[in-house]
Amino acid sequence: MSFRLARILSVALLGVCAATAVSAAPRAKTSKKPAQPAVPTLVWRGDVTTARGIVIDVAKAYEKAGKGKIEVQPFNTASGLDAVAKGSADFAGSARGPDGTAESSLVFTPMAWDALVMITYPSNPVSSLTLKQVHDIYYGKITNWKDVGGNDEPINLYAVASPGDGVEYSLRKLLFGRGSQPVAAPRLYVNTAKLEEAVTLDPKAMGVTTLAGISGNSKVKMLHINGAPATTSTVKDGSYPLFIPVYLITNESNPKAAQVKGFVDFLSTDTVRSIARQHSLVPYDEAPALAELDASRRPTILAEVGARPMPQETPVAAPGATYASRAAVAPTSERTQDAKQALDTRNEESAAKKAEASADAKTHTVGKGDTLGAIAKKYSVSVSDLRSWNGLKNDMVRIGQVLKVSAQ
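The structure assignment produced for this chain is given below.
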């Protein structure tokens, strides 16, 4: 046999052996697991305060527990409520309860107790204010820090622009009896986060935010109210007067209602309670007495500051209760806000022209942001004189109202 033929036979034999080995090898078992249905991502939208205070960390814990994913979209209260009502978000967060009939279809579930806190620049010598002083600052009666024990310099009062903002609405509801009360705050911001940033840059500033929002923030100074500091213990026992519930808002007609309910149930777990405490919040079910105290303190505060009691809105109820709103409707979208701001600007310009035209007649036409105290200061008269000349029973004035500013 020639060498070439032997080589060809060897190669052929090896090929046969290899093929036999392959065919004899056991085939790997393959089994396809049924595809698991994807859990839809839930969307949360609401005020920055609630997002920072609890929602962001709760969303992380929810995802870590393998229950699903939460997309957090912090902005402001009005946009969150509007999104849930329209179905573009699955739930919202708010530092206030419902304020109008447009929200009556939504479910407000209280998650925790927080506190409204007045903040100022760290070097400000003022450390405490009374409720009456806070009321008078927002009303425009007190405009200088020296009148509350500070330096002789103006109080630069900051506020959030949206009338439906949870923090601003809750404060005005407590101090004036209605959340829509105009206040003497010419410096306006889109949300509390921007307001806090502004306060850190202005030694004369004052504004309101929440305990959870600025807990541990050394760039601002929290003022005591009626001598009481804002802490989790003073919130829990009710000794700090400006405590508020923080809500999760849902819509029962949401097509993802089952997933939303799963998240609501998750809020009652020890994991979420622990997160709440880490952010200086009091878990809602750990302070049941505050719900009753919330209703009884309101007329007491109004009496203390000298404000007129207003019709009560729906009080705090048990978690999951549906609130039926009966108050005036507040704007609930950015588009509505833009239209309202344009209208307010036109009204303000019109009121200014009327006021200028009536100056010679010794009258003043009330414009946006006017208070009786500010008008009295402008014309160098007393508030009591203005009440007497105009037959006023209190200090409330309305845009377009014509007031006598002289006895003649």
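Interim note for the steering committee: The chain has two domains: 42-305, 334-404. The mean pLDDT is 79.
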